[in-house]
Write a structure and sequence with these properties.
Blueprint (H helix, E strand, L loop, with lengths): L7 H10 L8 E8 L20 E5 L14 E4 L13 E8 L10 E8 L14 H4 L26 E4 L4 E6 L18 E6 L20 E9 L25 E7 L42 E2 L2 H6 L3 E3 L1 H22 L5 H25 L4 E6 L2
Parallel strand pairs: 3-5, 11-13
Antiparallel strand pairs: 1-2, 1-4, 2-3, 4-5, 6-7, 7-8, 8-9, 9-10, 12-13
C-alpha cells in the first residue's frame, strides 16, 4: 500500500525533500475522526476533503490528548479502500503532495495511511495511553463498541482477505490447507470466493475461526470444484421424476446464497431466473401473485405427483365443455319434447322414430367430440 518506488508520488516527495530522499513515516494515536459536517474540524480542514481525516497525537511527543484543538490533523491517504480508524488506534503518518501543488510549488500536507495491526485482530487495534487515562481501559469513541463475538479469520496459503470489524469478511482463496473444509488434493488451486456477514459466535475471541455456511448469519459462496456442506432448509422433491443433486453433494461451478431470509426486488423493471435444464422450488408454502395475470406454459403441466407418473386425469377444457354441453342439452331437449307430445299409439311411435332419426347425427357428433373435451398437456390427480 505504501510502495512509492518509481511512482509520481515518490518523485514528487523526493523533489520536496531533496533528490532521492525517501518519505519519512511517523506514528500517531487517533484522538478524533471527521465523519461528517457535524465535526468541529469540518470547515477548518476543507469540508468534504476532511472526511475520514483525523486529529492525532504524535507518539514521539508528550502532548496532552485532552486539548484536541491543538493537535495536528492528517487527511485520509486512500480514496478507494478505506479502513476508518478508531479512537486510540495507531496509524502511519507521512507528508505527501497537496492539491495546492503546482509545477513550481512543492506544497505538501499530512496524510494517515494504514492502521498499525497491534493485536492482529479485526475488531480493533486500539492501545490506550495509560499516562493519559490512568487506566488500561480502551476508549474507542462515542459509537463503536468492542465485540467479543468477532474473531480473526483463519487464512489459507495465498489468500486475499478483507475483514470488517464486525464479523463480515470476503475471502478470495483456492489453496488446500488442513483447516480449509472446501479444498483437498483433488481441487487444490481451484478458486473460490466467500462473502460472509456475521460469523458464528466464537468460543474464544482471539482464536482463529473459519467460515461456516450453516452457522454464519448470511453467506454467498462462489465455488468452482468444491462441495459445500449446505444444510438445505427444505429437501422435498416429490415433483421430480429424478431429483437433482443436493447442494452438499454437487461438485462444480456453483453459487450458493444462504441466510435467515432472502429478498430479491426489482424496483424498476423485471426479475428473471433462467436455467438451461431445470428450476426447483421447495418450501412449506409457495405463493404466486400477479396483479394483472399469472401465465404458466410447458409441453406438459402436472398438478400432483400421481399426475406426474400416470397422466390418466387430464383437465377439462372449459369453453369446449360448455359448447359440448350446450349441444347435448339442445339434443336432449328435442328428445324430451318429442317424448312428451301426446298422441295415439301408431302416431306417437311414428313421431319418436322420426325424432330419433333427426337427432342421430347430433348424438354422433357429441360422441366424436368427447375426446376434445380434455387437455393434452395439463393433468391432475
Amino acid at each position: 500500500m505504501l510502495n512509492f518506488g518509481g511512482g509520481i508520488i515518490a518523485k514528487s516527495v523526493a523533489g520536496a525533500r531533496g533528490a532521492g530522499a525517501p518519505p519519512t513515516f511517523n506514528f500517531g494515536r487517533v484522538v478524533d475522526v471527521v465523519l461528517d459536517e457535524s465535526s468541529p474540524y469540518w470547515d477548518e480542514f476543507g469540508k468534504s476533503q476532511s472526511i475520514n481525516g483525523i486529529k492525532y497525537r504524535p507518539l514521539d511527543k508528550a502532548v496532552s490528548e485532552e486539548e484536541v484543538e491543538v493537535l495536528p490533523f492528517a487527511y485520509c491517504g486512500s480514496s478507494s479502500l478505506i479502513n476508518v480508524p478508531l479512537k486510540n488506534e495507531i496509524v502511519i503518518i507521512t507528508s505527501l503532495p497537496s492539491e495546492m501543488r503546482t509545477l513550481d510549488s512543492l506544497q505538501t500536507k499530512t496524510y494517515w495511511f494504514s492502521i498499525v495491526n497491534l493485536w492482529n485482530h479485526p475488531n480493533h487495534n486500539a492501545y490506550p495511553d495509560t499516562r493519559q487515562s490512568g487506566t488500561g481501559k480502551v476508549d474507542l469513541g462515542k459509537y463503536f463498541k468492542e465485540a467479543d463475538t468477532v474473531a480473526p479469520l483463519q487464512t489459507y496459503p495465498g489468500d486475499t482477505l478483507i475483514s470488517g470489524r464486525h464479523g463480515n469478511t470476503i475471502r478470495l482463496g483456492g489453496a488446500n490447507h488442513k483447516h480449509n473444509p472446501l479444498s483437498d488434493d483433488s481441487n487444490n488451486g481451484s478458486p473460490f470466493v466467500i462473502i460472509k456477514n456475521k460469523m458464528k459466535e466464537p468460543e474464544d475471541g482471539m482464536a482463529l475461526s473459519s467460515e461456516d455456511i450453516n452457522e454464519d448469519g448470511s453467506s454467498i459462496y462462489m465455488v468452482s470444484d468444491h462441495e459445500v456442506p449446505l444444510e438445505e432448509a427444505n429437501t422435498k422433491a416429490a415433483s421430480w421424476k429424478e431429483p437433482a443433486d443436493l447442494a452438499a453433494v454437487y461438485k462444480g461451478d456453483q453459487v450458493l446464497v444462504n441466510g435467515g431470509r432472502l429478498f430479491f426486488n426489482a424496483k424498476e423493471e423485471g426479475a428473471f431466473i433462467a436455467a438451461k435444464d431445470y428450476i426447483g422450488l421447495a418450501s412449506k408454502e409457495i405463493h404466486i401473485d400477479g396483479d394483472d395475470m399469472v401465465s404458466i406454459d410447458g409441453k406438459k403441466i402436472y398438478l400432483g405427483t400421481i399426475a406426474l407418473n400416470r397422466e390418466d386425469e387430464p383437465l377439462i377444457k372449459g369453453t369446449t365443455m360448455q359448447d359440448w354441453l350446450s349441444m347435448f342439452m339442445d339434443t336432449l331437449d328435442v328428445l324430451v319434447k318429442s317424448l312428451g307430445t301426446p298422441g295415439a299409439p301408431p302416431v306417437y311411435v311414428g313421431t319418436q322414430v322420426t325424432t330419433a332419426k333427426a337427432i342421430k347425427p347430433a348424438i354422433k357428433t357429441l360422441k366424436d367430440q368427447i375426446a376434445l373435451l380434455t387437455s393434452k398437456k395439463v393433468f391432475t390427480e
